[in-house]
Amino acid sequence: MMKEVEGSTTKLLEETKEMSPPKKKEYCFGLIHPDGLFNSPLTLLIFCVYVCLFVNNGLLVTLSKKKDGQYNYNTVAVVVIMECSKLVMSITIFSCQESFMTLLKNVKKYFKYIIYYMVPAFFYCLYNNLQFVNLAYYDPTTYYILLQLRVIVTGVVYQIVFKRRLSLIQWGSLIILAIGCVIKELKFGGTDGEGKKQVSFFNYHLLLILVQVFMSCLAGVYTEFLLKKDGGQVPIMVQNFFMYVDSIISNIVLLCLTGGIKDLVKPEGWQALGQPLVLCVIMNISIAGITTSMFLKHLNSIVKLFAASVEILLTAVVCRFLFGTALNAQTVISISLVCGALYLYSYAPMQNPPAPKSSNKPADGSKV
């Protein structure tokens, strides 16, 4: 009788244990946990590497300018070389993980993706070329803050593409982020022809920023959709292959339209592209491109917005020491709002949609 009671008690405890919710695993003082902003150490590492690479991007492009704010090299040609570098990196990484023949088999099997990626490739082509134009006019801190105008656009597009509604807290954090961007660019104290004070905001370069913002939002969300489509059965480096092939085609067409193809024929054109700073720009953005695909695969476009806000803080501090860029009251307020928005969003981050069971099977039938 006692044995039966003990057995029943043990069984009851086991069932209770199974019914009770599992304890949330936390690492780094709660910074990383399954339902948080970062669900693993890998996602935190990707986030940090992504931020550092794009901070370097703004600084390197700024340093590569001449004193008059122009570039002594063809920026479109630089973008073409960047895309070629990304393509070589993707092929090398996949070949090391699997084999080059497996890559060819995947390319043949999923060749239709070369059509899908033509859309984001075109958007990224415009985005990458506009960054040189806008960084020639704005300092890196202002440039990155203005790019945060994409938060509202990304929020709307993300809901439409992934059919997932943002919560009030998430929308609140995005709106605060947008306000921080507007405050940074509003300029008070100027005078018009009659000596009256005026507030200036819209100008030609801001219009180019807005174009860049829309290109970034549409390309980022659409690329994330393709990376996660059908549970992400197509290996990420194979998708990168299609993306960069399409990007190379788009940039070569742009190079022909702008007449910059002549610079690649002239010896002095190649000498300009061989400058140490230009090579650093090419290598940095190439690595950043690979990192971005991993970011969108393991995180999402909403978290990507907040990674960009961290870039602002780091860029402002570094520019203060490198270029002597003043941190005025508007910049400080703007950065504070951006950081506050990130803190608010961390309470209810957007989680990636669960992948279907079939996503565990690799595309080529090889071992994971």
What does this structure look like?
By secondary structure, this protein is mainly α. Helix content is 70%, strand content 2%. The protein is built from 16 helices and 2 strands. The chain has a two-stranded antiparallel sheet. Helix 7 runs antiparallel to helix 15. The longest helix has 25 residues.
Number of strands: 2
Characterize the biggest β-sheet. 2 strands, antiparallel
Helix proportion? 55-70%
**Distance between the amino and carboxyl termini:** 51 Å
How are helices and strands ordered from N to C? HHHHHHHHHEEHHHHHHH
Shape summary? globular
> What topology, given as strand order, has the largest sheet?
1-2
Radius of gyration of CA atoms, rounded to a whole number: 24 Å
Low-confidence stretches: 15-25, 189-201, 354-368
Q: What percent strand?
A: under 5%
Nearest-integer average pLDDT = 74
The secondary-structure class comes to: mainly alpha
Give the structure's gist in a few sentences.
The chain is an all-alpha fold and 368 residues long. It is built from 16 helices and two strands. It is globular and about 55 Å long.
List keywords for this structure.
368 residues, mainly alpha, two-stranded antiparallel ribbon, globular
Topology, please?
Elements: H1 2-19, H2 41-63, H3 75-97, H4 100-109, H5 113-116, H6 118-135, H7 140-147, H8 150-162, H9 168-185, E1 187-191, E2 197-200, H10 204-228, H11 236-257, H12 261-265, H13 267-273, H14 276-298, H15 301-322, H16 329-345
Antiparallel strand pairs: 1-2
Helix pairs in contact: 2-14, 2-15, 3-4, 3-11, 3-14, 6-10, 6-11, 7-9, 7-15, 8-9, 8-10, 9-16, 15-16
